[in-house]
């Protein structure tokens, strides 16, 4: 039985290397068939926002890479409701991340699950490994 890995993303997408490093580690773990899930809370919710413009920052916008997660069977993406609301965001402000469910005739389904802080705490408790970025 493989270990369950949860990658917790708390930082804004740009200004530090944490967000990009987390995404790269998740993709590597998923490529090696680890049971990978992600959590976005605090300013980490900004990592998933639509329409990111990075030209003035002089850095590459890596947010389109999140759309590849479904191809790596990463479909457990948890976003903390309270963090979204505190930043004036809703689910509609986030990237449309999906996966194809092989158990449901390859139906396309949403990867993002909006959860409360209490639910996220339970999800964290159920993991074998929790890595925070």
From TrEMBL:
Signal peptide: none annotated. Belongs to the DsrF/TusC family. InterPro entries: DsrEFH-like (IPR027396), Sulphur_relay_DsrE/F-like (IPR003787), Sulphur_relay_TusC/DsrF (IPR017462). This is tRNA 5-methylaminomethyl-2-thiouridine synthase subunit TusC. It comes from hydrothermal vent metagenome. Pfam families: DsrE. NCBIfam families: PRK00211.1 (NF001238), sulf_tusC_dsrF (TIGR03010).
């Amino acid at each position: 039985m493989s270990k369950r890995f949860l990658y917790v993303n708390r930082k804004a997408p740009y200004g530090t290397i944490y967000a990009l490093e987390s995404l790269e580690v998740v993709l590597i773990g998923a490529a090696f068939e680890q049971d990978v899930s992600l959590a976005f809370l605090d300013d980490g919710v900004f990592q998933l926002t639509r329409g990111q413009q990075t030209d003035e920052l002089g850095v590459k916008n890596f947010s389109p890479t999140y759309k590849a997660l479904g191809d790596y069977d990463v479909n457990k993406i948890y976003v903390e409701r309270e963090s979204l609301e505190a930043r004036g965001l809703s689910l509609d402000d986030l990237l449309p991340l999906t996966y194809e469910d092989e158990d449901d005739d390859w139906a396309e389904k949403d990867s993002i699950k909006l959860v409360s802080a209490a639910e996220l705490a339970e999800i964290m408790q159920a993991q074998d490994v929790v890595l925070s970025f």
